[in-house]
Design goal:
This protein has ten helices and nine strands. The chain is of the alpha/beta class and about 400 residues long. The chain has a domain of about 220 residues: Spore Coat Polysaccharide Biosynthesis Protein SpsA, Chain A (Alpha-Beta Complex), CATH 3.90.550. The longest helix has about 35 residues. InterPro entries: DUF707. It holds the Pfam family DUF707.
């Protein structure tokens, strides 16, 4: 009789131990799930014991009512949960030196600049470009000047990306020209080249180009070679330039008049009283807006100075000097590569007849008005700057 009682006692003790173990295990599981609900607790400090399963007598677990498979499911769930939490716990990226808006990106993936190079839809990206043009030339065009633009474009080598801004909305009629399929065509009716430049030639878009030509459509380039022009610009250290103009056609300023005795000139003599300082426009530090050429660095400044609503650009040529220093040395006219200004009033025809005025009259009136508005804005901005800095403006008489 003693033996059965002893056996029963041992069985009770085993069951009590098993219940204690199961209770402890459930408590650990509950505590773990309670802990992971608080983000301030590091999961790395709550490792699961790797020797938990081998220490359990599986037959005894089954006797206690807790199946082996159920425990394994719980353990696997815990392991998956821990792994998932560790995967999702990625440190947040914040790089203040990244471009504005891209602070959350790792610097190695940031592409802060772009380009105008066309790409294939197939093959390896690294093999897309046989040559990367170093210069950009843009013409703002209408179909009536197609033959003139065709002749002009042929003066530029494969080192130039050609970009046409179509102010008359007609683009397909250019398809028969051999070079047209390689050019970039942008079309918005009745807009000027400065409207296009402000919207499509952002400095971060044209950054790959050493020089940017922003030219009108009515230019004769019979005596012009673009590659030779670039050589002279680099030789004489010009950040802003233009070719000399043939003296007998479309000449407004003496500064832009081409000369026969020099490669480049940077100053001139105007009519008496026109130049308060020989180093200031229009006697120096001056080119016109019909055919300017900008270095990459100069264009970054000029682009920011172009106003969104003043689309004709009148007055801009007098302010270009603010973007280079010293302006009277870095702005000049290239005489050895000269062009003809044909003075075709094509953009005037895009105006609208109002109050009995011809379309071109309204366009010209706005040009003059914009010049005054630009001058006023520049003067106001300068005064505000000097005031904020607690300084007297350069021409102040209060000193």
């Amino acid at each position: 009789m003693g033996t059965p009682m002893k056996r029963s006692s041992n069985s009770r003790r085993r069951n009590e131990k098993m219940r204690l173990f199961v209770t402890t295990f459930i408590g650990v599981v509950f505590g773990f799930f309670l802990g992971v609900t608080f983000p301030t607790i590091s999961l790395s400090k709550l490792p699961l014991p790797t020797n938990l399963i081998p220490s359990i007598d599986l037959p005894d677990m089954e006797k206690s009512g807790l199946s082996t498979q159920a425990l394994l499911n719980v353990l696997n769930s815990l392991k998956d949960r821990v792994g998932s939490l560790h995967k999702n716990k990625i440190p947040k990226i914040w790089v203040p030196s990244n471009p504005r808006g891209a602070e959350r990106l790792p610097p190695g993936i940031v592409a802060s600049e772009s380009d105008l190079y066309t790409r294939r839809l197939w093959g390896l990206p690294s093999e897309d470009l046989i040559i990367k043009p170093r210069y950009l030339v843009t013409f703002t065009v209408g179909l009536k000047q197609k033959s003139n633009i065709d002749a002009a474009v042929k003066k530029f080598s494969e080192n130039f990306t050609i970009m046409l801004f179509h102010y008359d909305g007609r683009t397909t009629e250019w398809d028969d020209l051999e070079w047209s399929s390689r050019a970039i065509h942008v079309s918005t009716p009745k807009q000027t080249k400065w409207w296009y430049a402000k919207r499509f030639l952002h400095p971060d878009i044209v950054a790959p180009y050493d020089y940017i030509f922003i030219w009108d459509e009515d230019l004769g380039l019979e005596n012009f070679n673009a590659e030779e022009y670039i050589k002279l610009v680099m030789k004489h250290g010009l950040d802003i330039s233009q070719p000399g103009l043939e003296p007998n056609s479309g000449l407004t300023w003496q500064m832009t008049k081409g000369r026969n005795d020099t490669e480049v000139h940077k100053e001139t003599e105007e009519r008496p009283g026109w130049c308060a300082d020989p180093h200031l426009p229009p006697c120096a530090a001056f080119v016109e807006i019909m055919a300017p050429v900008f270095s990459r660095e100069a264009w970054r400044c000029v682009w920011h100075m172009i106003q969104n609503d003043l689309v004709h650009g009148w007055g801009l040529d007098f302010a270009l000097r603010r973007c280079v220093e010293p302006a009277h040395e870095k702005i000049g006219v290239v005489d050895a590569q000269w062009i003809v200004h044909q003075t075709v009033p094509s953009l005037g025809s895009q105006g609208k007849s109002e109050n009995g005025k011809a379309p071109w009259e309204g366009v010209r009136e706005r040009c003059r008005r914009e010049w005054t508005m630009f001058q006023d804005r520049m003067a106001t901005a300068e005064m505000a700057y000097y005031k904020a800095m607690g300084m007297d403006p350069p021409n102040s008489t209060t000193n």
